[in-house]
């Protein structure tokens, strides 16, 4: 199953989708899971990773909200979607900066996903005009 196929199957989509928005939704979902996993891995590290854990958890929540809103096809709410995409991109930038401070493979992977998600959100944002 793909998010693109799910969005395209909506009766109002009539088989057409906003590709950058679909990509942003997909990567926001991935990013939420990766941030959650990174926060969990940080909790097992021997040093204090409190700030990284908090940042990853907050980013995961924001990514989840953005992904959910980006997949909705009924009605129009570009203003809300813009706010969420900006918040998601900004949260991902903040999380990437925090994770890049740590020399852990899970933090490196999380930062990488956050950078990709932020970029995708900005590309989707550009389609909203």
TrEMBL record:
Pfam families: Csp. InterPro entries: Csp_YhjQ (IPR005560), YHJQ-like (IPR044543). It comes from the Bacteria. This is Four-helix bundle copper-binding protein.
């Amino acid at each position: 199953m793909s998010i693109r196929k799910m969005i395209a199957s909506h009766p109002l989509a009539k088989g057409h989708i906003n590709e950058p928005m679909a990509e942003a939704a997909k990567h926001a979902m991935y990013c939420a899971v990766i941030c959650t996993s990174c926060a969990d891995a940080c909790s097992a590290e021997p040093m204090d990773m409190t700030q990284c854990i908090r940042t990853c958890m907050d980013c995961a929540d924001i990514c989840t909200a953005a992904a959910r809103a980006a997949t909705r096809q009924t009605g129009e709410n570009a203003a809300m979607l813009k706010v969420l995409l900006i918040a998601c991109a900004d949260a991902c930038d903040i999380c990437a900066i925090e994770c890049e401070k740590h020399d852990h493979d899970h933090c490196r992977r999380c930062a990488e996903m956050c950078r990709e998600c932020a970029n995708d959100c900005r590309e989707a944002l550009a389609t909203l005009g």
